[in-house]
Design brief:
heterodimer; A: alpha+beta; 3 helices; 4 strands; 49% helix; 14% strand; globular; B: mainly alpha; 83% helix; 0% strand; rod-shaped
């Protein structure tokens, strides 16, 4: 499974980690819904750390799309909401 | 993966699969152009950050100048003027200090941005190689399926770099606005800052008043540094003798 941490790059993760990541991801999303900045920052930190430690960074010359995309490490709740808005737009971020 | 799945849609519909082989060169040209734009974008962010840094240094220099003016005012026995100058100095230092953590964060972000652009550079080159291989060795139909993932991968990378740049730019602009406002504040130390509500302005002035203790301590320090200087009503024997 290929996961992208925005602004940081892509990581190849074993599928076995998916359940664990789901729990961490749900906590981050809950914090976004609750508007709890401190909880979000902590949950995002745990999620991204797990991705970084659990997988292998993709070499720079590998060209593959990601299965999952996670917010940048310094994202705020507002940033994530803005990203959600972009994601729900028709064109997404892909240029051209 | 709720959050991750929702964000995955950020990269939109992948169009690699329906890219005719003739469009491969066009795709490469487009990615190269995006790479150039990204390089320029990073350079702009660095320039803007350096400008804010200079403004912060200039605020600190103005603060130092106010301090020496305050010292002169004390020499001339104009304690009220000295106090006023020190209040303004405290305000400037507060503004400069408030900008510094943002500058540090931005510098951090710049480092990551530069790494992202380098990564994109490697990927654009990898895309060129794959494109040439595919064009030389495969039929159009085979080429489509072989280059599809590579196309999606490089589009995603460009989009990520674009996003990172947009964030850095927004942060730089915000800081620039604050630094400019702090500059005008240094020129005319009154009124509200452009981004402040009336309440915030009042709060800031209250904070400046509360910094009064600090100003008194500064006054005491300057008096100490001046040796024979003293406050009103504290005339010593030397002063008496001089009269």
């Amino acid at each position: 499974m290929i996961v992208r941490i925005l602004t940081e790059g892509q990581v190849d993760l074993p599928d076995a980690l998916l359940d664990e990541l789901n729990v961490l991801d749900a906590a981050a999303e809950q914090a976004v819904d609750a508007g709890d900045e401190a909880a979000f920052s902590a949950a995002l930190g745990r999620l991204l750390d797990r991705v970084r430690t659990g997988g292998r960074r993709l070499a720079d010359d590998v060209l593959v799309p990601s299965d999952l995309v996670l917010p940048p490490p310094d994202a705020t709740i507002d940033d994530v909401r803005h990203l959600f808005d972009t994601a729900s737009g028709a064109d997404g971020l892909v240029p051209g | 993966m709720s959050l991750g799945a929702r964000l995955s849609a950020i990269f939109g519909r992948r169009r690699g699969d329906d890219d005719p082989i003739a469009e491969l060169d066009a795709s490469y040209a487009q990615q190269s152009a995006l790479l150039q734009q990204s390089r320029r974008g990073v350079a702009d962010v660095v320039t803007a950050r350096k400008r804010v840094e200079l403004q912060v240094r200039s605020l600190e220099q103005k603060a130092a100048r106010l301090e020496s003016e305050a010292r002169e005012a004390l020499h001339a026995d104009r304690e009220d003027a000295a106090r006023e100058l020190l209040v303004r100095r405290a305000g400037l230092l507060q503004q400069a200090g408030a900008l510094q953590p943002d500058l540090d964060r931005l510098q951090d972000q710049e480092g990551r941005l530069q790494e992202s652009v380098q990564r994109l550079e490697v990927k654009v080159e990898a895309f060129r190689t794959q494109k040439e291989t595919v064009k030389a060795g495969y039929s159009a139909a085979e080429a489509h399926s072989r280059i599809g993932a590579a196309y999606a991968g490089i589009s995603e990378e460009s989009a990520d770099v674009g996003l990172a740049l947009e964030r850095a730019r927004a942060r730089t602009e915000q800081m620039q606005a604050r630094a400019d406002a702090a500059d005008s504040l240094a020129a005319a130390d009154s009124g509200a800052l452009p981004w402040e509500s009336a309440g915030e302005s009042a709060e800031r002035r209250l904070a400046a008043l509360q910094a009064g203790d600090g100003v008194e301590a500064e006054l005491a320090r300057l008096r100490g540094a001046g040796g024979r200087l003293r406050g009103p009503g504290a005339a010593g024997p030397d002063a008496e003798a001089a009269r």
